[in-house]
Specification:
Blueprint: E1 4-8, E2 14-18, H1 23-32, E3 38-43, H2 50-60, E4 64-68, E5 71-76, E6 83-84, H3 86-89, H4 99-106, E7 108-112, H5 125-133, E8 137-141, E9 144-148, E10 156-158, H6 164-174, E11 180-184, H7 190-201, E12 205-207, E13 213-217, E14 226-228, H8 233-245, E15 249-253, H9 261-269, E16 273-277, E17 280-284, E18 294-295, H10 307-315, E19 320-324, H11 333-340, E20 344-348, E21 351-355, E22 360-361, E23 365-366, H12 370-381, E24 383-384, E25 386-390, H13 393-396, H14 402-408, E26 412-416
Parallel strand pairs: 2-15, 3-14, 6-7, 10-11, 18-19, 22-24, 23-25
Antiparallel strand pairs: 1-25, 1-26, 3-5, 4-5, 7-9, 8-9, 11-13, 12-13, 15-17, 16-17, 19-21, 20-21
This protein binds uridine-diphosphate-N-acetylglucosamine.
Residues 24, 27, 94, 121-127, 161, 163-166, 304-305, 327-328 line the site of uridine-diphosphate-N-acetylglucosamine.
């Protein structure tokens, strides 16, 4: 049996919360620590389940890792092991990001492929094509990505799609390659910019961070650094949407509002008043939200990780909303759970069409991934009665102190163990 939440509907969320570093950044920064022998320190790390899992992956490669509060210290040996085996990586997908650093340091890598994911297929063809362009062989053998190179040389890489993971792996392989690599159609997410920042602090030469073209001039070696992880825009955006859904008033600190430009614009479109600060924002919603259309796209588009929240908002908005998913095809599975809560929603291919109702009605529901799980909790907040959200270990993987933060805003939530 896994844990579940019981969420009581009806509260208007009011107050202030702070976000920690981004899950989708810290895991890659931990992998990047493999690029330099010695002690790398990451501060502002979120206390989420994926951080100790990534620590285990790095330990399996010979690093020592200490997690103390929001500080992660990684001591990388002169010669890390190159084999991340199935036991280490099976629990979560982000472990694939050790591929690039291992190629850079060891010129070879064997990284077991994690199992399927509930949000859609996640192939590695672009990661492999990039490594091949840099001079490596890369195949899938016996459930592992196996890559090796005599030497890595700079190359021109053009991605078919601005994949976050492929951009990161190719970038981390290229920083220690001979010569200049350009990555075109590169991902532009703030977490990529954060990785470029840390790599530059370590001595890498990278131009174009945050633009569609990254130019990397290989260097002979990198040195460890101390780095502050960029704030989690997905957690921050979740609280912004929660304010709009519950007709509340939430201030979020620890985030650059530029990282949520489109999300905050959409909330304004739904009728919210949004104030932006240097290190956060405030969302105030005084009346029932109005329907807005949303289409997920790579940054600076609407993040796919906030798509469940956009649908949650649509379920109680006045009017008809169309939400289009362009990144992960299976992300609509959770819409069926929302229908159990009384949502008037249907999906057709990449589109979900939602006619808002005044209020949802409580029911037991099941989370299929991190973001869908939180989307269901938000839906529970606007349902009559108590909603049971099952399989909440997904939420533990990405939302630090979730229950405490929700309670501090006036939400009623209880965790039932087992
Ligand atoms: C990362 C994030 C995830 C987020 C996603 C998109 C982490 C740990 N996860 O995932 O939360 O939702 O970015 O912002 O950072 N693709 C291929 N071939 C490849 C690589 C990707 O076809 O070689 C496809 C995927 O199937 C998907 C799309 O490209 O349809 C985007 O994937 P990608 O940007 O790579 O996402 P992740 O890095 O896996």
């Amino acid at each position: 049996m896994s844990d579940r939440y019981v969420v009581s509907g009806g509260a208007r969320l009011v107050g202030e919360v702070a976000v920690w570093g981004a899950k989708n950044s810290v895991l890659k920064l931990m992998a990047a620590a493999l690029l330099a022998e010695g002690r790398t320190v990451l501060t502002n790390a979120p206390r989420i389940a994926d951080v100790p899992l990534m620590a285990d992956v790095l330990r399996g490669l010979g690093a020592s890792v200490e997690i103390s509060g929001d500080t992660v210290t990684i001591d990388t040996p002169a010669e890390p092991d190159y084999h991340a085996d199935f036991d280490a990586v099976k629990q979560f997908r982000a472990s694939v990001c050790v591929l690039g650093p291992l190629m850079a340091r060891r010129r070879r890598a064997v990284v077991a492929l994690p199992g399927g994911d509930a949000i859609g297929s996640r192939p590695l063809d672009m990661h492999q094509a990039g490594l091949r362009a840099l001079g490596a062989h890369s195949e899938i053998e016996h459930g592992c990505v196996v890559a090796a190179a005599e030497s890595l040389h700079g190359a021109e890489v053009i991605l078919d799609f601005p994949s976050v993971g492929a951009t990161e792996n190719i970038l981390m392989a290229a920083v220690l390659a001979d010569g200049v690599t350009t990555i075109e159609n590169a991902a532009r997410e703030p977490e990529i910019v954060d990785l470029c920042l840390m790599l530059t602090e370590m001595g890498a030469r990278i131009d174009g961070a945050g633009s569609p073209t990254l130019t990397v001039t290989g260097v002979d070696g990198l040195h460890p650094t101390t780095h502050h992880v960029v704030g989690d825009r997905i957690v921050a955006g979740t609280w912004g949407v929660a304010a709009a859904m519950t007709q509340g008033d939430i201030t979020v600190k620890g985030i650059d509002p530029e990282h949520l430009r489109l999300v905050l614009k959409k909330l304004e479109g739904a009728g919210a008043r949004v104030e932006r600060f240097d290190d956060g924002f405030r969302v105030v919603q005084d009346s029932r939200p109005t329907a807005v259309n949303t289409a997920t796209l790579p940054f600076p588009g609407y993040p796919t990780d906030l798509q469940p929240m956009a649908i949650g908002l649509a379920t109680v908005s006045d009017g008809l909303s169309v939400v289009t998913e362009n990144v992960f095809e299976a992300r609509f599975r959770f819409v069926e759970e929302l229908v159990r809560l009384g949502a008037d929603a249907r999906t057709d291919g990449h589109h979900a069409v939602i006619r808002g109702v005044e209020r949802l009605s409580s029911a037991p529901v099941w989370s299929s991934d991190i973001r869908a799980g939180v989307g269901l909790v938000l839906a529970g907040l606007v349902a009559d009665g108590d909603t049971e959200v099952h399989d909440i270990e997904h939420i533990d993987r990405g939302y630090p102190n979730f229950e405490e933060q929700l309670r501090s805003l006036g939400g009623t939530i209880a965790r039932i163990t087992g």
